[in-house]
Amino acid sequence: MTYRLVRELQQKAIPVTQACRILQVSRAGYYQHRQRGAREWDRVVTVYLKAAFSGSGKSYGSRRLASALQAQGLTIGRYRVRRLMREAALRPVWKRKFIHTTDSRHDLPVAENLLNRQFETDAPNQAWVSDISYVHTRQGWLYLAAVMDLFSRKIVGWSMAPTMPTELVVTALRMAVQQRKPAPGLLLHSDRGSQYASLEYQALLDQHGIRCSMSRKGNCWDNAVMERFFLNLKMERVWQRDYANHGEGQRDITQYIVGFYNSVRLHSTLGYLPPAAYERKMAAIPPIPVSEITGPLHDVGRSPTYYLLKIKRNTLMRTRRPVDTQSMFLSSYLVSAQCVLPHSMSRNHGVNLITLAASYL
Questions:
Q1: What's 148's domain CATH number?
Q2: How far apart are CA 233 and CA 254, in angstroms?
């Protein structure tokens, strides 16, 4: 109690030496008390840290982990998280070399690069990207075609098969159209592989009024966002698994997309929110007329869409915390990690967290 009074006096700009003399306690004893409290707090935070790290597929670094803990109301910075990660031997999984699967050796017509690396949109269903990647199983290769909405980085359609026929990308696109029901004029970007240049795929685009855009030859950076998703998928899930067959791989990848990537995983581009939560919160922000974007903003080489999105995201960040959905996210981390909480933390926090998580899992 006395040491707490010293702390309160210190916060009121009274020097520690003077406060200790007034309350007749030693300065050394006060600092020892603070160190004991800091160590206990580090122990409690490390429980959350380990749970969030495990729930992310051992992929989160200090920035995302700090954001996840801050969303729980914990006052902690990136550098303290980094120190606790080092002390707890928490190291994100390493990246591997990425192998491309594009086969552009065909005589089919290809589209222009209309997207031109403009990976930001201010509303859903304005621009999508798509690509194909591969997953190793003991039964052979499993190929995954996915479609992403650039607005929220949400995977809106996907398909898997042991081969790469045109039907693979067609099925993924049909799923995306069925889920999102985009208006005519949507831009869909892909590489110039034979599947995307096929007559069947192009006919499906025309049927729904979707404009086609394709990367330049041999330039993977034109579809960098999609490449990044596949890297995250493999780093956070696939490389930590040994799939016995195609079916096991399909089930696990689907669970990753639905149960983690779209609904739980924190995205730095989205202000450290998951795609689903980002879409809900951005939809709640009143629309901003383009006519309000005037003055010198047009003179710096940026489009009005860029500033509309920036204003909306700034509004989102100002109103982000407390984020109600984040309780569910970290709770699912705790459950998936099967984390054993300290007794005091279980009594004060753990029961509510686990109960809340159970209602969502």
A1: 3.30.420.10
A2: 11
Q: Name the residue with tokens 């581009």.
A: 269
Q: Is residue 180 part of a domain?
A: yes
Angle among Cα 233, 237, 243 to the nearest 5 degrees reads 115
Among candidate residues 138, 158, 159, the one with its CA nearest the CA of residue 147: 158
238 is a domain residue: yes
Instruction: Identify the helix (H) or strand (E) that includes residue 195.
Output: helix 194-197
* pTM of the shown model: 0.65
Q: Distance between CA 72 and CA 261 in Å, rounded?
A: 20
**Gap between the Cα atoms of 97 and 95, Å rounded:** 7
Look at residue 143 and give its three-state secondary structure: strand
CA distance linking residue 360 with residue 358, whole number of Å? 5
Number of domains in the chain: 1
Question: Which has the closest alpha carbon to 157: 244, 229, 108?
Answer: 229
Preceding peptide of 322 cis, ω within 30°: yes
Dihedral, CA of residue 11, residue 13, residue 15 and residue 16, to nearest 10? 0
Determine the structural domain holding residue 217 and report its residue range: 127-258
Least confident residue range of 160-169, 255-264, 301-310: 301-310
Does 21 map to a domain?
A: no
Is 141 domain-assigned? yes
How far is the C-alpha of 200 from the C-alpha of 325, rounded, in Å? 41
**Distance of alpha carbon 272 from alpha carbon 325, whole angstroms:** 12
- Residues 224 and 207: their CA atoms lie apart, in Å, by 27
Task: For residue range 296-354, list pLDDT tens digits in order.
Answer: 444 445 566 666 666 666 666 655 544 444 444 444 444 444 443 333 333 333 333 33
